[in-house]
Write a sequence for this structure.
């Protein structure tokens, strides 16, 4: 683990122990935004992980999406000068599975 990762993880942990503890659980997603940020930094490194966390924070807002949003398992390299491409700035559109009622209605 590099020095950048250690610093980023220490800052995230400091946030978790101070502000997050005072504010309570406010995140719309699971895992929480700070847990997501720590996992992204651990898995992908300080630079891509920080951009992934920034994108997640932008998605976690009133009126935004909610639900389970894990850290991506792989991180494709991005062109130099375009680090924002590491982040997923919008939740992907997921088509819900049909329910039994919808199946019966279509038959």
């Amino acid at each position: 683990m590099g020095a950048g990762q250690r610093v980023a993880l220490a800052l995230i942990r400091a946030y978790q122990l101070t502000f997050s503890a005072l504010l309570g659980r406010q995140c719309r997603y699971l895992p929480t935004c700070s847990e997501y940020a720590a996992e992204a930094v651990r898995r992908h490194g300080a630079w891509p992980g920080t951009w992934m966390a920034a994108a997640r924070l932008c998605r976690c807002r009133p009126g935004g999406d909610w639900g389970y949003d894990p850290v991506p398992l792989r991180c494709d390299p991005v062109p130099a000068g375009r680090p924002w491409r590491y982040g997923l700035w919008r939740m992907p559109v997921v088509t819900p599975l049909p329910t039994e009622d919808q199946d019966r209605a279509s038959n």
User: Anything to note?
Assistant: The mean pLDDT is 82.
